[in-house]
What does this fold into?
Amino acid sequence: MNTRAFVAGWASAVPDGRLTNADLEQRVDTTDAWIVERTGIRERRVASRDQTTASLAIEAGATAVKYAGLAPEAIDLLVLATATPEQPIPHTGAFVGEGIGVRCGSFDLGAGCAGFVYALVAGASMLTGGGLEHVLVIGAETLSRIVNPADRGTCILFGDAAAAMVLGRSDRPDAPGLLAWDLGCDGSATGLLEIRGGGSRMPTTPETVAAGEHWLRMQGQEVFRRAVRAVVDSGAATLEGAGVTAAEVDWFVPHQANLRIIDAARHRLGIPEERTVVNIERYGNTSAASIPLALAEAADDGRIRDGDLVLCSGFGAGMTWASALLRWGHP
Ligand code: UT7
It folds into this structure.
């Protein structure tokens, strides 16, 4: 098949509220020096009371549609990746579709911090295989709502954001767009990063709330170890699938979870620091929003240019991993 999904427009939305390391020093037993050295994070954005996963997604999605030069009615499908949905029912895409002004099909996709790349692959595949013209793919999170403010192992890491991409369709065989991808999940490791309460396994009761089962829990060291391996293996498999070497990659856009994970992974993949997009110091880990946020920023400031080969790679709760190789630009 010669049809290809290309990135026709993009945008991001972040709350104005900032949570600095100095703020966190007042809340938990930590220091700015420890956080910077162990994670690379200096501050994160935090949603205000009236901001939600859907409101951030609507802002990013509507702007991306506008920048793609489209009216909302031109969108044929909305795929929204999130680990922090608006409500348990209905799905977040319903709120976002209404906010953007579309009546097309929509669904949420849960694959943790790998969610955006999963959504990109799903959206692109439905576009090329299903004859769609435009698909809106969004990663949106309000992790500040699920992080235990008293848990220094997690509260220092996560932030809130949304970012969106409009996929367009080209029938030219040499068109830019999604060239190769790799998705995976090792479900033997579900307990490493989880919220136990609130689902069918542990419905919410006063007891589960008292026990803090509605908060995110993470075994950081083990997630770290697996994350490096997942990004390297998945990134390498994607390059191999496309018949491309690491030396040909113009930009590596990894999930922004920890600067040490990013450095270790890019080093093993053979990609230099100057070709790696990093913004973790300003946003922390924004889960499904992290890769599109970094992509949007690097495309906006002119680092990523038309024709560039871009490797995205993420990993997260599940444990999931996902990589995508894109040729940036319009056909
Ligand atoms: O998006 C997907 C998933 N998330 C990730 O990818 C996160 C992966 N994991 C990590 O980024 C790291 O494991 C953390 C940043 C969470 C923790 O860093 P670490 O280097 O693995 O620290 P550690 O858990 O091995 O703890 C080292 C020490 C411990 O003290 P002792 O036992 O050596 O005395 C911790 O109690 O650091 C202590 N510690 C802290 N100290 C100050 C743990 N958290 C903090 C903190 N401030 N916030």
